[in-house]
Design a protein that fits this description.
Blueprint: H1 2-45, H2 55-79, H3 83-110
Helix pairs in contact: 1-2, 1-3, 2-3
């Protein structure tokens, strides 16, 4: 029956669109920071004498986050069968972001800040 086929297609298409959107976010979140790094270099990405990032690097990352989310949402919305595919993508990004933030907080509390030196070692 046509209704069963449409439901099966929807069930497969929505998670697939969300996965494609997630991959798009990952690709954008890799390519754009590389371009930002090439543009700023290490002296532009970090504050002098330490590992703290500069304002230009932080501003660039805000743009990258919005661009990645926008690109992923756009791709997902073009492929998905209905709105639920976009909601699956949003849920995956929120859960992934929350887990990343939780693990970052645990890992950063264990790190000791060391000064940055010039040279390869």
């Amino acid at each position: 029956p046509p209704q069963v086929k449409k439901t099966t297609t929807t069930l497969l298409r929505n998670p697939g669109a969300a996965a494609l959107g997630y991959v798009t976010v990952a690709v954008v979140s890799f390519v754009l920071p590389v371009i930002l790094w090439i543009g700023l270099g290490p002296d532009g990405a970090f504050l002098p004498g330490g590992w703290d990032t500069s304002g230009a690097w932080n501003a660039g990352w805000m743009f990258i986050a919005v661009a990645g989310a926008g690109a992923g949402g756009f791709v997902c919305s073009k492929v998905t069968a209905d709105r639920r595919g976009v909601w699956i993508l949003i849920g995956a990004l929120v859960v992934g972001g929350a887990l990343s933030a939780a693990f970052y907080d645990v890992a950063s509390s264990a790190l000791i800040s060391t000064p940055r030196t010039s040279g390869p070692c």
